[in-house]
Write a structure and sequence with these properties.
single chain; about 850 residues; alpha+beta; 10-stranded mixed sheet; 29 helices; about 55% helix; transmembrane
Length: about 850
């Protein structure tokens, strides 16, 4: 019996695979994208974690400060503590390679270490004896190898040597200020992971050559045997200066992973869009399949198969479609992941994992999860059709012409309204663990609720349509009036596709417009001069600043200093921007501001500081600067699209007074009336080392920034196209199957005088009206989803706001194109049904 049922339910998938092909491909695409994102994330995090463990080695705890570092006097204080057995100081610098090595861009992570101390903790960072003593172990003897302590020698990881095309004995120049520090490659570090791009030199060399005397960025500690790590963490942490924190290596790795968590999660959600649209396509395909096989399924019921068994077999059909899609999607996903890692890196171009070149890693849990999601999506799409088939009366279903009553029971509007109400109730709930969980849930409920109320909307819309005079058009309207629930089978796929594509179009368009406006606000100068990106080794000293000020043709000069602050060890570092504020506060896009009390220091905080640290206008907070805390007042909140983890702007003069740091990284230049930009640029390059500086006009920066934005969101455009294609395929499949089920009706129409062309136009009109219903409801749903994306998901994920921009022209063109394509698909789908002779079609009856 089971063999007969298996043939009845699963055999048609083998005999007519084309009917399930689009469903399989849609699910395969969703699984492939999900697996690709998961594998890329896993590969990047694994490599990043290996890099952190390589540096920390056998340390039990580590003391870290901001990227600018802290006073090295902390090192002997920690070394004298009774809990500590071994102490290893480090200075980490993101150094910019110059010359041929720097042509590809990017920075080299340079680690300055005390080789005698590090030999007992970070063994992987010590060159092997083969490059020094020739003995069999890496110990302090390796540190005495000729060249290791030389002031011009560094050692490269194999990945860095390959990236920059260097070998032992070669030379490399690294930017220091606007000058260069030249080094000889003493050898390689084979114990460093294959994906880690770093270099090692003596800590005294790093401090001297990069003008960081007396500064450390990290101290690794190994505790004495028997000392409780938790107690040591509390005791040491209580004695650290402001802005310096202690953590275990595992905690540090977890904190580093938080840098990209929101980005990774949102990429995964984006990949799930294809799975969602695939589930709706399965629903449409299985629903019309139930209509087409209505008599066959009724015969099986009459032959003794129970309702429960019928539901299980139809769900098994859906599971098989999902399994086939997953089977195709997994290898495609791994191929996409390998391509992405090779072309754009483990952060998919977002810049989170610089200094790492991850290799493809197998992700069993992520892969299994997306395979299960693919099967679950197909089964979810099959559930409603399976229930409808089980509820049908076999006696009525065996009679030809009963198809119009299919899915009539799925008209109640209460479940849909309940979903919409639930979405509205949870959408504003706070994030969980920094992730907009309720925002995602609200989007899902909104989409499901819109589909559930679609039959009621179809009934209301089609009931109010006037009856046209043309017979073929009147028949189309009457058909939709009489069986509006059947129209929703095709409209559901269109609604899902249009809603998701429209929501992404509105969100991306709003984001791009907001970024464009923001760039015009933060780039008011005529020319911008940069020594290096924030965090790299370039800067302008006082002498270079004087040279810039003496350049003819300049009317105004603004110097900017970029540093970082570590306010919470569980959160990423906060950017500190020192710039003139008192005379030019308008250079930052303020959202709100207050007057600073006399005698107080005012700072401007980005929106992320509100979300992550709870800073509010007028609040007094404490900032760690130069090893001590100063009290400041939050004088304004500003919009910052460049730094999602928070930024604080402070007046440059105040910063210099508090820290004594006179260096700057960037310079904004306003030209004097009549001055020529090219001449001023030549004069600046004549005064400064041309290889170490970057000059750009605001229009050029804006163009590059928007180009990066468009490349970043290119995947969303591709997914929008996929969603549209899936929606149109759903209409085509639905009308093809419904047309096949209505062959007797078409035969009767042919007998009473309608031509094949009129029947085709009738189906085309039905398709157009169904598409209009799907497009209108999809655009309404998509607009609501876009509001959630803009005001909830983006704000809770990346901590920035944006202005809503509705691209009416694009949406109208998009909706019109969908309607025309769906109409064409409906007309073409009618051809097969009308190939049957009219007499034979009328005689087809059980």
């Amino acid at each position: 019996m089971r063999a007969v049922l298996a043939h009845a339910f699963l055999g048609h998938l083998v005999q007519q695979p084309g009917r399930a092909l689009m469903s399989v491909l849609a699910l395969a695409l969703g699984v492939a994208l999900g697996v690709a994102v998961s594998v890329v994330n896993r590969s990047a995090l694994d490599e990043f974690g290996r890099g952190l463990r390589t540096v920390s080695g056998q340390a039990d705890i580590e003391v870290r400060g901001a990227r600018g570092g802290f006073d090295e006097s902390l090192y002997p204080q920690l070394a004298q503590r009774p809990e500590v057995e071994t102490v290893s100081p480090l200075l980490e610098i993101d150094a910019k390679p110059l010359g041929a090595a720097g042509e590809g861009g990017g920075a080299l992570k340079l680690i300055g270490l005390d080789v005698f101390r590090a030999a007992s903790l970070s063994v992987a960072l010590i060159p092997p004896p083969a490059q020094g003593t020739g003995r069999g172990e890496r110990t302090a003897e390796s540190a005495r190898a000729p060249g290791l302590l030389d002031e011009d020698t560094l050692y490269l990881s194999p990945a860095a040597a390959q990236r920059f095309g260097l070998a032992s004995g070669d030379a490399i120049a690294l930017q220091s200020g606007v000058g260069s520090a030249r080094f000889r490659i003493g050898g390689l570090l084979p114990a460093v992971g294959a994906g880690q791009m770093l270099a090692v030199t003596d800590i005294a060399t790093a401090q001297w050559r990069f003008e960081r005397l007396g500064v450390l960025t990290r101290i690794d500690l190994r505790l004495r045997e028997g000392v409780d790590a938790a107690s040591a963490l509390r005791a040491i942490g209580a004695d650290l200066p402001p802005g310096v924190f202690v953590a275990t290596p595992a905690q540090a790795e977890s904190q580093a992973a938080r840098l990209s968590r929101a980005y990774r999660v949102n990429l995964t959600m984006l990949a799930l869009i294809a799975l969602v649209t695939g589930a709706f396509l399965v629903f449409s395909a299985q629903a019309v399949n139930v209509v087409r096989r209505r008599a066959e399924l009724a015969f099986l019921r009459a032959a003794g198969i129970t309702r429960g068994a019928l539901v299980r077999w139809l769900l098994l059909e859906g599971a098989l479609i999902g399994a086939l899609g997953s089977l195709i999607g997994v290898p495609v996903g791994y191929a996409l992941a390998a391509l992405a890692l090779r072309l754009i890196g483990g952060d998919l171009g977002a810049g989170y994992f610089q200094g790492a070149a991850p290799a493809l890693a197998f992700d069993p849990w992520g892969t299994t999860g997306f395979v299960a999601l693919g099967i679950a999506a197909a089964m979810a799409g099959s559930a409603a059709p399976a229930i409808e088939a089980a509820r049908s009366d076999p006696a009525l279903a065996l009679k030809s012409g009963d198809a119009a009553d299919s899915f009539a029971r799925f008209g109640p509007v209460a479940p849909g309204l309940l979903c919409l109400s639930a979405a509205l109730a949870i959408v504003w709930l706070p994030p969980i663990g920094g992730l907009p969980v309720f925002g995602y849930a609200a989007i899902a409920l909104l989409l499901i609720g819109s589909v559930l109320i679609l039959p009621r909307l179809a009934r209301l819309l089609f009931a109010r349509l006037p009856t046209p005079r043309a017979p073929w058009l009147a028949l189309a309207v009457l058909q939709l009036r009489g069986a509006p629930h059947l129209a929703t089978l095709g409209a559901a796929g269109v609604l899902a596709a249009v809603a998701l594509a429209g929501a992404m179009a509105i969100m991306v368009g709003s984001f791009r417009q907001s970024v464009d406006v923001w760039l015009s606000q933060v780039l008011p100068a005529d020319l911008y001069l940069r020594a290096s990106r924030a965090g790299e080794s370039g800067h302008f000293d006082t002498a270079e600043q004087v040279a810039i000020q003496s350049t003819p043709g300049l009317a105004r000069i603004d110097f900017l200093r970029h540093q970082s602050l570590l306010l919470d060890p569980a959160l990423p570092q906060v950017a500190l921007i020192a710039r003139p504020l008192t005379a030019d506060r308008a250079a930052l896009p303020l959202l709100a501001s207050v007057t600073v009390p006399a005698g107080s220091i005012g700072v401007l905080a980005s929106e992320a500081m509100q979300d992550l640290y709870g800073w509010q206008l007028g609040q007094r907070v404490r900032l760690p600067l130069a090893g001590r805390e100063i009290e400041v007042v939050v004088a304004g909140i500003w919009r910052d699209y460049a730094r999602q983890h928070g930024a604080v702007a402070i007046d440059l003069a105040t910063y210099r007074t508090q820290t004594g740091d006179m260096r700057v990284n960037d310079v904004g230049l306003w030209l004097a009336p009549g001055a020529d930009t090219a001449q001023v640029a030549r004069a600046l390059r004549a005064r400064l080392p041309a290889d170490s500086i970057e000059l750009a006009e605001p229009g050029e920066i804006r163009k590059i920034s928007l180009g990066i934005f468009d490349r970043t969101f290119a995947v969303t455009y591709a997914l929008e196209a996929v969603a549209v294609a899936i929606g149109i395929a759903g209409v085509a499949a639905s009308f093809a199957a419904l047309a096949a089920a209505r062959r007797r009706e078409f035969g009767v129409l042919r007998h009473i005088g309608l031509t094949r062309g009129e029947i085709a136009r009738m189906l085309g009109a039905e398709g157009a009206l169904v598409a209009v219903l799907g497009v209108l409801t999809g655009l309404a749903t998509g607009t609501a989803i876009s509001l959630i994306l803009i005001h909830v998901v983006n704000r809770q994920s990346f901590h920035w706001s944006m202005e809503l921009v509705l691209p009416w022209g694009t949406l109208a063109l998009f909706g019109s194109a969908i309607t025309l394509l769906a109409t064409a698909a409906a007309v073409l789908s009618a051809r097969a049904a009308m190939q049957v002779d009219a007499v034979r079609a009328v005689r087809e009856d059980w």
